[in-house]
Every structure is written in structure tokens, then in C-alpha cells.
Amino acid sequence: MRKKIRFQNTKAETAVYFCASLTGLLLIWYLAVRYTNLNKVMPSPFEVFAFVGSSFVKNIGSRILPFHILASLKRVFVGYFLACIIGIPLGIIMGCSRTGKAVIKPIFELLRPIPGLAWIPLAILWFGIGESSKYFIICVSAIVSIILNSYSGASQVDPILTGAAKMLGARPIQIFFYITLPSSVPQIFAGLQVGLSSSWMAVIAAEMIRASEGAGWIITTGMESGNTVQILSGMISIGLVGLLLASLLRLMERGLCAWNIQGK
Amino acid sequence: MSKVEVNHLTKSFGKLKVLDDISFQVEDGDFLCIVGPTGCGKTTFLNSLVKLYDVDCGEILINGEAVDLNKHSIAYIMQEYSTMSWLTVRENVQFGMKIRKFSKKKIKEKTQEVLRMVGMEKFADYYPGQLSASMLQRVSIARAFAVEPDLLLMDEPYGQLDLELRFKLEDELIRIWQETKTTIIFITHNIEEAVYMSRRIMVLTNKPTKVKEDFENPLPLPRNVTEESFVEMRNRVTNLIKWW
Predict the structure, then answer these.
(1) The CATH classification of domain A44-262, taken from the options 1.10.3720.10, 3.10.580.10, 3.20.20.140, 1.10.10.10
(2) Rounded to whole angstroms, how far apart are CA atoms A37 and B243?
(3) Whose C-alpha in A211, B65, B114, B117 is 20 to 30 A from the C-alpha of A86?
(4) Which of A185, A259, A264 to substitute to test the interface with B, most B CBs within 10 Å?
């Protein structure tokens, strides 16, 4: 009789499935490159990981890989931070105040469909080709989902809760801080997660505007020199750092919204 | 304590008239049970009383003044669960006391007292998402009692509870009322519950809701549901609702 493996907890189960799927993907990649014509345009995973490993001590361009990643991280953090400090209050104002919604929402709806990358020409004209234009592009790419989710969280506060707080004597400012804000936190975090992914996507485009370092720069120069190993190394670096950042944000969410996670 | 006066209260939702010229008084320290057919507007009435709804015309006065939720000490236990999911049971119970700036010592004592009363002391550190429906309602009840209100409004608060707890909380409410003389307006569709607890019973008609009959419940406390006088009173209310 076959024995079925039973996991003690879902965390272990998830980790096992994650490792299995990753190994499967690498295996398919390896076999495809080894036994098909794909090897003409695609390096094997061993080559890519060897390049990633060696670039921790050997320069890509004028810097080693960790420096490139840190350069991209700095850009993402500045742009993303700006998106957070502008986007969260704007979304909450739209969600809480009728006037705020009437004033901000039409403008937001007009700008919302414009992709972050469409702002590149204007960003160069306004801020030049230095760091500011990169921050701007990352900021506009991340801000839409942050505003939308903050708005959605603040506008969907259960009226029964605000009613109950009113009954207990809470004033509007107390209702805002004790009811509206905490009940919006899970939605705000959902927006922050999407915004973070958008920031990482935007950093590649932003680093196409005259950069001499960064994960995006690794990909762009790899493309210019036809170096697929370097392109894939840059992509993998972005993927891994993005995964790490999303996990950190999720940990933060677990800390701040323990009630939401424990309740599920 | 609070004296409540309701004068010519009328409320419509669009073309649907829900409350039609309702007038009555609740004396200081009275215990009024409002019964009526399902959907007759009992909840609308309480929501209007606490200004969750704007009324079309009429007025509601507490001690001769228009209702002011910051001035008048009112607690409202709603039919729906109104626990804040980001606060633990203990924090939910303390919410109103903190808003009303009770002292730290009193908050601590009162929290223990009301949690014990509703049988939730063991679950003080749980979040609402981890509790059952009846436990959630017990938290709302504890939170309302904790603020020691002058006027306690209860909208079918025991509907979700099991019988044993329901009987216990009915007796507890009578005890608190006798001790504190808090004015209570209690909405229920359970006639036995109304007759068991109230000092006065008001029967409402179906929509548009009017007051059909408003009478004293003279049965002495504690009441016995099997006594002839109790059964007679219950039948009286049943007939009023049955033949509206």
C-alpha cells in the first residue's frame, strides 16, 4: 500500500511545493536547452547561476551585482515611498470625504489609465536624465494601486461599526482614527503590495534613461551586447529581490493586521 | 437616568412610509419592550432615535433636549454584530469606556465584571474573527453594559444566543435594571421575552407602523413563565400581534 505523506503544518507544505515547482521549472529549462535548439538563444540555468555567483566578486560594468541591486533598491524605495506618502492620504481623503472625492476622483480617473512608462518623455523634460526622473516614473507607476486600494478601504467601512462608535460617544475624529483607519489597513496593504510590484517593473524602464548601474541597467546593456546570460542574471536578480521585498511587506502586514490573519 | 419623549415621529424610505406619526413617552428608569410583526420598522425606530437615520418629521427628546450622543449616555446593542475585528474581545469591551474617559482602574474592573457576566473571560484575548456568532453578540452586550448608560437601547440582542445563555442574560438585564434604574428600550419579536422582562409593553402595527397598544406589565418580578397570570399576559400580546 502506498503511504501518503502528511504534512504537520501548511507552512511546511507550502515550502515543499515551492521547492518542487522551482526545481521542476529549472529542470524543464535545463532539458529544453540541453536537448532542443533553444540553446541558440538561451543559456542553461547553470551558466546563468554561475554568472550570478561570480558577479558577487566580479564587476558587471564598473560594479559588482550587489551594488547594482542596491542602486535599483534605492530608486525603488524613494519612488515607492513618495507614492505611499502621497497615495495613501489621497485615497483616504477620497474615501472619507464627499468633497474630497468630488475634487480628486475625476482627475485621478483621467490619469489612472495612463501607464507609468508613458510618463518617461515628460519625466525627462521636467526632471532631466538624473535620478529625479527615475523616482518620478517609479512613483507614478506605484501610486495608482495605492490610491485605489486606500480609497476602497476607507469608503467601505462598515456603517454598523461607525454607528456603534457614534453610540458610544465617539466624535468624528475618533471615528476616523479608531474605526476608519484600522479597518482600511488590510486594503491599504493590498495596494502597497501591488504598488511594490509596479515599482519593480518601473525601475527597469526608469534605468533605461541614462543609468550606469542598477538591475535594469544590467538587462539593457546585456541586450545591447547580445549577452543573454547577463540579461537573465538581471531578471533573476529582480525576481529574487522582488520576492524578498513582497515577503517582508507580508511579514509587516502580519504584524499590523494580526486580527485579519488570525480571523481567517 | 433618562426620560425619552417621542413626538409625531414619521420616517419614510422613498415612497415607503415606515413610521407613521408615532408618539409616546418612556419615563425615567422604565423598561419598555417594543414588539411587533417582523419588518414593521422596529429597528428603523431605534435607528431614528439615535440619529443613525434622519426623520421626516417629529422629534425625539431625552430629558427635554434633542438627542446629543456626546451629551446623553446612550448604549445601543444592534441586531447585527458590531464588534471591531481589529480589536480583541477585551479591547472591544473597553472601547466605549476609553471614549468616555473612564479611569484606568475602573476600565480594568468593569472589563472583568462584564466579561464574566457574559461568560467571555476566557476569550478576552481572542479576535472577533475567531469567535462564533453568539460570542460576538455577547461581546457587543458586554461593551454596552460596560459604559453604564443612562439609556440602553437593545434591538433583538438575544436572537442569536442559545436558550441557556438567553435566560441567563434576561435575568442579568433585569438585575442590572433593578440596580441601576437605567431606562431600557428593548425590541424583540419574542413575546415571552417581552412579558418576562418588561415593565411596559408597546405593540406596533405593520407598515406604516403605528402604536397599536401601549400598556403596563403589572406582573411582579421575578416572573414565572408557567404562572397563569404570565400566560394570560403572553396571550394578550400574542392576540394583539396576531390580529393586527
Answers:
(1) 1.10.3720.10
(2) 87
(3) A211
(4) A259
